[in-house]
């Protein structure tokens, strides 16, 4: 089935011809296998700009169509590929549209071959003139027609257009693609074929090997299929706000980074901010944005050359590192607040206090915060709070500050659809990973009564770009592990009933589950997770359980077992300490830091190198400024031991969540349950849960029930304390 992606809304004044050609292409491929893009993001010195229309066809290969909506009287003469114009067209007196399309087709072909290995991939290029008929062209230019492959206004019917494309001479000769090669081409043009590949040793390990490093290597070799939703999120530029709700491991950070890079390449004059909450994500996000800039420009544009317009900003910032809040405070001449001079509270509450104060200051002085053309927010669930005192005029302070920092979108970008004033505020979140608040960042929760004005009417913009996306595929975490994470995070198998969760079949289906039963109090509900929505294949390669749980009489016994297990992973499993292994410690207030210290001491006593996030050095207890690295999370050769709050956004192949007795002591705490979910969902492979003094605890029996349930979860539905339904 043909799939077409419009990367930016078009169809305004002067673009009627472009719409005509694109709609004709879609009609010509209706019901057929094809992949099409309006403005595929590829901008190099050779291609100059993005191709107007890109078609991937299993029979014809890659086709680039350059659209020129010119009336015939504007073309004075044609010499070879060059057109002489009778009046300027966007300031030009000469055009060479076929040469531009040919270069774009050549560059796309080289890109696809490099990423897919399809050495027999054909490419074609043609020029569409939707305002000129073939007869009119012939009457004026005669035999010169043959010099440029063209599509005319009277060839816009499905049969004629397909025939014209088939008759277009190749730029690069090739062969029709078989089924596997066609899937490879789709991957090469999509996000799944361009994500930075993990470097895993022992890639030539025998298939029968059951060492963890070899199983990880086999998993890393697995090729994910083309994901249409990923392309719709990463490659589109909405003419207004957009909400992205994605489960853990769905790739929200990767897609936002790609989206920000594509925005910059399409609109290099825009000021763009990509904002995040966890400082440990800083290097990861910079790496991703740099990767996608280089990917779309053949290495010609990097974050270093783009950062005067494309800013990667921590939500708060510090004196030694620019942040979103501090940038806006400086803009209006306000003295930025620091962590030290805000009231004692959670990190989120401190930030929101500062944001509210800045909004009050801007309102009192009449100074404008508008400096950005697009703001993209990752980890959106960590930038809200339920406390009314932290809101600004019944709006969430951080989001309203971000909204106020944006310049309104030009009316022509809205295509005169009657939308209210729009601003490009794009936020991604997973409410299950919220650690400091129970507020869900829906439009209504963020903007109150102003929500309708911010988002406008309808669910899509003109051209088809959605105002809201829900991501249901989890690429990072294997299905059995994600199922356990949701079950324990929401308390689905608690004897007293679930604590939090979705309360209808539609929303469970939207995040990738198959559902049987009715959501009526006392009714039985069955959840299963399909392999299509959890494509990590590790469970297919091993009979070893991916989720285990052990409890011990005391902490010393628990940590001794942890130490022995890590030693086995390093020796027998062949794993590396850093990035393969991660130890996560949950708890409230001082609990995680005390336990982090105990784990550190136990592992160091056994000669295992340890890194504590935020430290400058390895194998030392928690360091204080200036011997710190606030962005640090990994160090080569050392096992990271982290509180849940710092682990968010990171991942490892084997995750140890220790100290579950902290959760057992308050097993009905939704915040602690969210910590448990975050800890488990950091895993790309195995999760080992442990605690001490948990004999006879209700959480102990619950965990054992979840593990015994395997890949199918049956529970008795009761109304939860916290509903996570999508209420937009």
Automatic annotation (TrEMBL):
Keywords associated with the record: Plasmid
InterPro entries: DNA_helicase_UvrD/REP, NERD, P-loop_NTPase, UvrD-like_helicase_C
Pfam family, one: UvrD_C_2
A GO molecular function held by the record: 3'-5' DNA helicase activity
Domain UvrD-like helicase C-terminal: 639-689
Annotated signal sequence range: none
GO terms classed as biological process: recombinational repair
Domain (NERD): residue spans on this chain: 14-115
Domain of life assignment: Bacteria
PANTHER family: ATP-DEPENDENT DNA HELICASE SRS2, UVRD / RECB / PCRA DNA HELICASE FAMILY MEMBER
Protein name: NERD domain protein
